[in-house]
UniProtKB/TrEMBL annotation, chain B:
It comes from Marinobacter albus. CDD domains: HAMP, HisKA. It comes from the Bacteria. GO terms for molecular function: ATP binding. The lineage of its organism: Bacteria, Pseudomonadati, Pseudomonadota, Gammaproteobacteria, Pseudomonadales. The chain crosses the membrane at residues 16-38, 158-179. This is histidine kinase.
């Protein structure tokens, strides 16, 4: 039986396969996944390093502050940063970042994808409006699988 | 009876028809079979590609659900396949080879384990396929589908039915056409054979067959006509020459019978007319002997007596000639005769007239022959008189008459113990005026056996003799049974 964070890490990787960035911002081919705040994954996330999503190799980053995260395409917001969520989301979406978090009601606060737990099963919610305003395209298959979609 | 059903006895028409129909049947069968085979292949291909398209679509749809382990979503996706009735089983495996979701029509079948690759393609009554679920070139799971082939079977069954029905219709049309067309070949042959049979039966050589076209049958027809023409001409010639021949024969026959009649009339009148002067000689000889006998000396009386003896002999000869002429000319009155009774009568007469020699005559009773009574009597009287005569110098007389009947004839044998004759003179025996003994030994005219021979010949029979000197003689008379006709 896999641990909760193993599943969440796998989901994190799979999300990147169903999201399309409107225009590639950087010249770097890497798709950078950043964890802001405390890292709940431990070693598990290291397995993603070097894997390929939509033809782009993944890279991991652990920025100290929000201002250090400009080159990230995916931003995982740790639970500790729940207090300055509006600032983080506004900052991230201006830079076409896909925001993901396990903070409860993350999508209602303007985040794009939030993990939810239904019993023992990990599911997720999507704020499509936020995604579109951030300039991201979400594959309809992913939408079908979400427990809730905010349009 | 069964012979009539063997193919040698079938008419040409039937054979031709059978030939045509068997070839067309073979052709239609081959065409139908190939059509069915090709249709089966095509339909299989079509079915295969349809199932692959369905599988591709569903595999693509289920990729995301597989990745996010959303079993509910997977069930929803594959349950859409329930609408396709022939799909028996669908299984979706994750990348590790574990069954994530399944759709079973029948409960007894469970998804095959992927550790051993399952059989795919057309196996038995099912079509199976196993496809990887791909996302961006990565294999994220496997999609397994099993479909029943009843639609294919149903389709092919219907196709066979339609194809063979059309085949039967075509065959019937072909049979009708063949029935029409075979007349082109069989009709001239039939007419030829019919004409040949009629010619053989009726000998009507004026029959000709109609000639169709210039092919082999046409040539055969003309050759046949030419041949019959030649036969007709030759037949005509033969008939003409036969008629000529018959006329000639009739002419000759009438000439001959005229001459014969004249000759017989001549010999009859000669014999008859000879009697008169002979009676005069005899009468006056007797008168001379009685009235002037004593005026003659011994020599004269001797001469006179010789004259009279000669006269008696001549009278006998004339009588014989008359009998011979009569049996030759007389019309025959054919009926069934009891020969044994007739012979007994003759023997009785002979017993009364002659010597006192001890005589033993044995006649087989019940001998029956067919012929003219008077003539047969003359013949057997002669034969018995001969037997009597040539046994007169024996110590005793033994005569036996026996008959031997064969399928087509009856042979009467008259055997005596007389002096017999030398077989080297047997050819002269039945010729008139030929005698094997001198008058001093046995008297006779030399006409008796000639008369017998003539009678037997007129009855279409034959006579022959067997003897040796002093050992008796045996005369055989054979009458054919066919004289009744």
């Amino acid at each position: 039986m896999r641990s909760e964070y193993e599943v969440k890490a796998a989901f994190l990787y799979n999300f990147t396969r169903f999201i399309t960035w409107a225009d590639p911002l950087s010249d770097v081919p890497d798709l950078k996944i950043c964890v802001l705040g405390q890292d709940p994954f431990g070693d598990v996330l290291q397995q993603l390093d070097g894997r390929v999503s939509q033809g782009r190799p993944l890279a991991l980053g652990y920025p100290e502050s929000l201002s250090d995260s400009d080159d990230c395409q995916v931003l995982f917001v740790g639970s500790a940063r729940s207090r300055d969520l509006p600032a983080i989301i506004g900052y991230a979406h201006d830079r076409q970042m896909l925001t993901i978090s396990e903070i409860p009601d993350f999508v209602e606060d303007g985040g794009i994808i939030g993990y939810v737990k239904e019993g023992n099963v990990i599911r997720f919610e999507i704020n499509l409006k936020a995604a579109q305003s951030a300039g991201l395209h979400v594959n309809s298959r992913l939408l079908e699988l979400a427990v809730r979609v905010i349009r | 009876m069964m012979d009539r059903w063997r193919w040698q006895y079938w008419p040409l028409k039937t054979k031709l028809l059978l030939l045509t129909l068997s070839i067309s049947t073979l052709g239609i069968l081959l065409v139908c079979t190939s059509l069915v085979v090709v249709e089966n292949e095509n339909y299989q291909e079509q079915l295969e590609s349809e199932l692959h398209v369905i599988a591709d679509i569903l595999a693509e749809q289920s990729a995301a659900a597989l990745l996010f382990e959303d079993d509910q979503q997977l069930s929803t996706i594959i349950s859409s396949l329930r609408q396709i009735g022939t799909i028996e089983q669908v299984c979706v495996y994750n990348v590790a080879g574990r069954v994530v979701s399944a759709l079973d029509e029948s409960d007894d079948a469970s998804c095959p384990a992927l550790s051993v690759p399952p059989e795919v393609g057309f196996v038995g009554d099912y079509y199976r396929l196993l496809e990887p679920v791909m996302l961006d070139g990565d294999i994220v799971g496997q999609f397994y589908l099993m479909s029943r082939l009843e639609v294919l079977r149903e389709h092919i069954r219907a196709f066979i039915l339609v194809t063979f029905s059309i085949g039967i219709v075509i065959q019937m049309i072909l049979a009708w056409v063949a029935l029409r067309l075979q007349r082109l070949v069989s009709e001239p042959i039939f007419q030829l054979s019919d004409a040949a049979e009629r010619i053989a039966r009726d000998h009507d050589y004026s029959i000709r067959v109609p000639v169709y076209g210039k092919d082999e049958l046409g040539r055969l027809g003309s050759a046949f006509n030419e041949m019959i023409g030649t036969v007709q001409q030759q037949n005509l010639k033969i008939l003409q020459s036969r008629d000529e021949l018959e006329r000639t024969v009739a002419d000759r026959t009438s000439e001959l019978s005229l001459a014969n009649r004249e000759l017989e009339a001549f010999s009859f009148s000669v014999s008859h007319d000879l009697r008169q002067p002979l009676r005069a000689i005899e009468g006056f000889g007797q008168a001379l002997e009685e009235d002037c006998g004593d005026q003659l000396n011994e020599t004269g009386r001797d001469y006179l007596s010789r004259i009279r003896t000669a006269t008696v002999r001549m009278g006998g000869l004339i009588d014989g000639l008359l009998v011979l002429s009569r049996v030759s000319r007389q019309a025959m009155e054919i009926k069934q005769l009891d020969l044994s009774a007739m012979l007994e009568e003759i023997v009785e007469e002979l017993r009364e007239t002659t010597d006192p020699l001890p005589t033993y005559v044995r006649i087989q009773p019940g001998i029956r022959v067919v012929g003219d009574g008077r003539m047969i009597r003359v013949a057997f009287q002669n034969l018995l008189e001969n037997a009597w005569k040539y046994t007169s110098k024996n110590g005793e007389r033994r005569i036996a008459v026996t008959a031997c009947e064969a399928s087509d004839s009856i042979t009467v044998a008259i055997r005596d113990n007389g002096v017999g004759f030398d077989m080297k003179y047997v050819d002269k025996l039945f010729v008139a005026f030929n005698r094997l003994h001198t008058p001093s030994e046995f008297v006779g005219t030399g006409l008796g056996l000639a008369t017998v021979d003539r009678v037997v010949r007129r009855h279409f029979g034959e006579i022959y003799a067997d003897s040796s000197v002093d050992k008796g003689a045996c005369f055989y008379v054979r009458f054919p049974s066919s004289i009744q006709k």
